[in-house]
Amino acid sequence: MSKLMPPAHPFDDDKLHEECGIFGVVGVTDAANFVALGLHALQHRGQEAGGIVSHDAEQGFNSARRFGYVRDNFTSQSLMKTLPGPLAIGHVRYSTAGSKGPTQIRDVQPFFGEFSMGGAAIAHNGNITNADALRRELIERGSIFQSSSDSECIIHLMARSLQRNIPERMEDALRRVEGAFSVVAMTRTKLIGVRDPLGVRPLVLGKIGDGWCLSSETCALDIIGAEFVREIDPGEMVVITADGVESVRPFRPRKPRFCIFEHVYFSRPDSILGGRSVYETRRQIGVELAREAPVDADLVCPVPDSGTPAAIGFSQESGIPYAMGIIRNQYMGRTFIEPTEQIRNMGVRLKLNVNRALIKGKRVILVDDSVVRGTTSRKIKEMILDAGAAEVHFRIASPPTAWPCFYGVDTPQREKLLAATMSEDEMRDHLQVDSLRFISLDGLYRAVGEDKGRNPSQPQYCDACFSGEYPVEPSDMIEKGFRLKAAE
Ligand code: SF4
């Protein structure tokens, strides 16, 4: 393996991972510097690699793509000087291990295409569920792909469009695409943002001085001092120039199905989603969980960091004291880029350590955001028992994850998901804990603001990884043998 190519998932943390974060700015001096800061704030959405494309009237388009963290690459003055101009977009990526192999530099976005009316670059968050079929068709018609990424289909579809200008070519291309997409794109003069008709992935609009920006999350607006203007609507395209923001609706309207897992885990707790603080939603999930699954215990401890707000809510509702029973090493990062077998075997202990003095002799409630394969949950339970806990109770801030995501989240195959093959009681026995309870889907809907819980006749969110009800049929996966719930 090349030293330049990082191994995918050097440490298996047994979480679902968002695959991308996107950011774009127009109308500011040295836009690429703002994009680098925005991507730094979105680093939780992808840590394997990042890229920036900028445009300058004299120097045209420039790009840089690098493996690793934004802070380790896009802070170098010598690199940032190569990305001049008032318009730039960027992307951070998480590799899709298992399905397509480790990240190659050619898979790192933004992707760029030169068209007869000028160049354009795009950065995509989500997943195109008919990408295999599109790629086959495009290759048969002469397209030459440079990467293994589904997102590259958009550039080739744009190249084949007969429309007069780039925004119209994008509309044309995206009408052929199925699945989830939030896209930021740029031409020589325009910043463009689009969300798919279901609005599965987030995208927000911000204002900075005389300029504008687009971001996966509001936390990235805060870092550059931009003001949050609004979310891009599902099915909306915005075309931003020096003259302002033009909004068009290129797609047939559909009921929105925003990813409910963004509220549970993917988005940063200091972001705002659907007008609500993500932190507050997560705290409310903990409140619902304490109501649905009470247990007599001495301490409520989060599995850091993602379980923290839900643990606070659980503690507040139950009256059981909150404590930092597990401490996370904040400097773990990619320290061991090619870890030895000995280091790998230390596994979760490299990242998490138990606060022994606090835990000894206590009945402990551990609050985590999800259980995927159960490997980490089991190791954490062992660490807590080794530290002398009297009882271990898991409370999980999402319903059992029993189905894979095909909309831009890296998920193991269905057979590897613990909840796909075991009931809640079987999972409790498998993890060898005193009790295990997940929040119900109704409880989760209440926590995100649906008073009556989930209304199956009118779902407001995508919850397919819990319910198996996919709002867009994953046609490529069905072709590969994936069986939908109704077909089982
Ligand atoms: S399947 Fe799950 S993770 Fe994927 S978009 Fe739907 S709710 Fe989000």
UniProtKB/TrEMBL annotation:
Pfam families linked: GATase_7
Q: Cofactor comment in the record?
A: Binds 1 Mg(2+) ion per subunit.
**GO terms for biological process, alphabetical:** 'de novo' IMP biosynthetic process; purine nucleobase biosynthetic process
Which EC class is the enzyme in?
Answer: transferase
Pathway assignment: Purine metabolism; IMP biosynthesis via de novo pathway; N(1)-(5-phospho-D-ribosyl)glycinamide from 5-phospho-alpha-D-ribose 1-diphosphate: step 1/2
**Where are the catalytic residues?**
C20
Q: Which reaction does it catalyse?
A: 5-phospho-beta-D-ribosylamine + L-glutamate + diphosphate = 5-phospho-alpha-D-ribose 1-diphosphate + L-glutamine + H2O
InterPro entries recorded: GATase_2_dom, Ntn_hydrolases_N, PRTase-like, PRTase_dom, PurF, PurF_N
Its protein name is Amidophosphoribosyltransferase
Q: Which organism is it from?
A: Primorskyibacter sedentarius
Identify the gene encoding this protein.
purF
